[in-house]
Design a protein that fits this description.
- The chain is α/β, with parallel strands linked by helices.
- It is built from seven helices and eleven strands.
- The strands form two sheets. A six-stranded mixed sheet has the order 1-2-3-4-5-6, with helices on one face.
């Protein structure tokens, strides 16, 4: 766990391979994703060190329902009593406690995806939970926070991003931040939808995007990655 971002407007916690983000507003917080199973104690210790009471977390926003984003959800929900925000298209997965592994976007991750789907399907399971608010259309605003939710599918059908103060976006697995010259996620079920979602992110006023995996992605890198995989973004040609 660490506070590895210099931006003082929010906090970052590393839950296994997944970045969680705590966004503050008037003494309350939005938690972006719940992280991995068996990381709950470490996260609660993190809150204690930051002098944050669990019940000060008002919302848990799920970018999607893969196990590394929902593994700790059930327990954190019980401790925080936070409202779970989820795109409606993934409600069934959350209620079952199982979301299939996504498809790979390169040869190595296609192999990993195959193993996850066919050989080790149980690895993707997590404790089922009931979402509190299901939203569908981009533009949903969880009052009173300065946040807007965008539907950004491609990685999964219900993948979503949270735009914070019209300056930064927390994008789940719509982008990856592992590579210096490419922000393409290693897994995505639908590249055509991913292209639309990248354009939707570029249509915001955000200059920086915070993925669930890896480092922050600057607008310039997203634009260059768009050109590499999809051609010129709209408005750039």
């Amino acid at each position: 766990m660490d506070l590895h971002d210099s931006n003082k407007d929010f906090m970052t916690f590393r839950s296994g391979i997944t970045n969680l983000y705590l966004l503050p507003h008037e003494g309350e917080y939005i938690l972006v994703d719940a992280g991995m199973k068996k990381k709950e104690k470490a996260f609660l210790s993190f809150l204690t060190k930051q002098k944050i009471h669990p019940e000060e977390i008002r919302y848990i926003f799920l970018t999607h329902t893969h196990y590394d984003h929902t593994g700790a959800l059930k327990l954190l929900h019980e401790l925080t009593h936070a409202t779970i925000l989820l795109h409606a298209s993934e409600a069934g997965y959350l209620r079952k406690g199982y979301t299939p592994a996504p498809r790979g976007t390169r040869i190595s991750t296609k192999v990993i995806s195959f193993l996850g789907r066919k050989v080790f399907p149980g690895y993707s399971r997590y404790e089922p939970a009931e979402p509190d608010i299901l939203w569908e259309e981009s533009g949903y605003r969880p009052a009173p926070f300065p946040a807007e939710l965008l539907h950004t599918p491609g990685h999964t059908e219900g993948s979503a991003s949270l735009v914070w103060k019209e300056e930064a976006a927390f994008v789940g697995d719509t982008l990856f931040g592992y590579e210096k010259e490419d922000s393409l996620p290693w897994f995505a079920n639908d590249m055509a939808l991913l292209k639309q979602s990248w354009q939707r992110l570029l249509d915001t006023s955000c200059d920086i995007f915070y993925p669930s995996h890896g480092r922050p992605v600057k607008r310039a890198l997203l634009e260059e990655s768009f050109r590499k995989h999809f051609g010129e973004p709209a408005g750039e040609a």
